[in-house]
C-alpha cells in the first residue's frame, strides 16, 4: 500500500506544489487548509487528493483531525508542516495579536501537528517529518520579528526532535526556502519585491516546485541517513554556515 503523506496548508503555494509532487511520487496525499473552503475542495477534487479543514493552531482540532485522517486513509507516514502566515510590522508597532497569531500558527502549529503522528511513527519504525521554515528564520528580517522567531524556532525544534526520532527510523528535517513566487510573496508591494529580487544572486524568485522537490527527496527512502538537517533553497541569497 502506498504511503500516506499529509501536507498542512497544502492547497495553495508551496504546499500545493508539494502535495502534487508527493502524489506524482506515488504517495496517497492528504492536504489541509483553514479558510479557503471552495478553492481548496476544488483543488483537491481536480488533483485526486483528500482535503480536510482545521486550524493547525488548535491542538484539539489537530488531534481529532489526525485521528480522522488515519481512520479513513491509514497511518500518516510523512508529515509536511507547511502551513504558515505572516503578520508583518516593525517591532515598535507590532501588536500582541500579530505576535501570537504568527507564533501560534507557524511554531505551535508544528507542535500541534507533529505530536499526534509521533507515537505512531515511532511504533511503526518509520516516519518523515519535514518542516518548512524560511530564509528569514536563518538570517532574521526587519518587520518580521514574529515570523523570524517562529521560523528560527522550527530549526531548533527540528534538531532536537531528530535526535529523539533517529533510532526509531523517524527522520526530522527542515527546509528553508528563500523568496518563492506564491501569494504570500506576491502580496509584497512591487518596488519592495524588485529590491528583494535584486538581492537574489540567481536573479529571480524561486518556484514552489523547487521547494516541493526538496521535500519529496527528504521524504524518500534515499534520504534515510539525513536527519536534523537544514536544507537551504534560496538562490544564493543567504548562505548559512
Ligand atoms: P500561502 O500563503 O500561499 O499558503 C499558506 C497555506 O497555509 C494555505 O493553504 C493556508 O490555508 C494554510 N494555512 C494558513 N494558516 C493555517 C492554519 N492556521 N491552519 C491550517 N492551514 C493554514 O503560503 P506559501 O505557499 O507562500 O508558504 C508556505 C510555507 O512556506 C509557509 O510556512 C511560509 O512561511 C513558508 N515560506 C514561504 C516563502 C515564500 O516566499 N512564499 C519563503 C519561505 C518560507 P487557506 O488556503 O485555507 O488559507
UniProtKB/TrEMBL annotation:
Concerning CDD domains, the annotation shows: BKR_SDR_c
* One GO CC annotation: cytoplasm
Concerning Pfam families, the annotation shows:
adh_short_C2
The processes (GO biological process) annotated in the record are: monocarboxylic acid metabolic process; poly-hydroxybutyrate biosynthetic process
What Gene3D superfamilies does the annotation carry?
A: NAD(P)-binding Rossmann-like Domain
Q: Which InterPro entries match?
A: Acetoacetyl-CoA_reductase, KR_dom, NAD(P)-bd_dom_sf, Sc_DH/Rdtase_CS, SDR, SDR_fam
What are the protein's UniProt keywords?
Answer: Oxidoreductase
A Gene Ontology molecular function term of the record:
acetoacetyl-CoA reductase activity
Q: What is this protein called?
A: Beta-ketoacyl-ACP reductase
* Species, as recorded: Nitratireductor aestuarii
Amino acid at each position: 500500500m502506498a504511503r500516506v503523506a499529509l501536507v498542512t496548508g497544502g492547497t495553495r503555494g508551496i504546499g500545493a506544489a508539494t502535495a502534487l509532487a508527493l502524489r506524482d511520487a506515488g504517495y496517497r496525499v492528504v492536504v489541509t487548509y483553514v479558510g479557503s473552503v471552495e478553492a481548496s475542495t476544488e483543488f483537491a477534487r481536480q488533483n485526486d487528493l483528500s482535503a480536510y479543514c482545521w486550524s493547525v493552531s488548535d491542538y484539539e482540532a489537530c488531534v481529532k483531525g489526525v485521528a480522522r485522517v488515519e481512520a479513513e486513509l491509514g497511518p500518516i507516514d510523512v508529515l509536511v508542516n507547511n502551513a504558515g502566515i505572516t503578520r508583518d510590522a516593525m517591532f515598535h508597532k507590532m501588536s500582541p495579536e500579530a505576535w501570537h497569531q504568527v507564533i501560534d500558527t507557524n511554531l505551535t502549529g508544528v507542535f500541534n501537528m507533529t505530536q499526534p503522528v509521533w507515537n505512531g511513527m515511532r511504533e511503526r519504525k518509520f516516519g518523515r517529518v519535514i518542516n518548512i521554515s524560511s530564509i528569514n528564520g536563518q538570517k532574521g528580517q526587519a518587520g518580521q520579528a514574529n515570523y523570524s522567531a517562529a521560523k528560527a524556532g522550527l530549526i531548533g525544534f527540528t534538531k532536537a526532535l531528530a535526535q529523539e526520532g533517529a533510532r526509531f527510523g523517524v527522520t526530522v528535517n527542515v527546509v528553508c526556502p528563500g523568496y518563492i513566487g506564491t501569494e504570500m510573496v506576491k502580496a509584497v508591494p512591487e518596488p519592495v519585491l524588485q529590491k528583494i529580487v535584486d538581492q537574489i544572486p540567481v536573479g529571480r524568485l524561486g518556484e514552489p516546485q523547487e521547494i516541493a522537490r526538496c521535500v519529496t527527496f527528504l521524504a524518500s527512502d534515499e534520504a534515510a541517513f539525513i536527519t536534523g538537517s537544514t536544507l537551504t533553497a534560496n538562490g544564493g541569497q543567504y548562505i548559512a554556515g
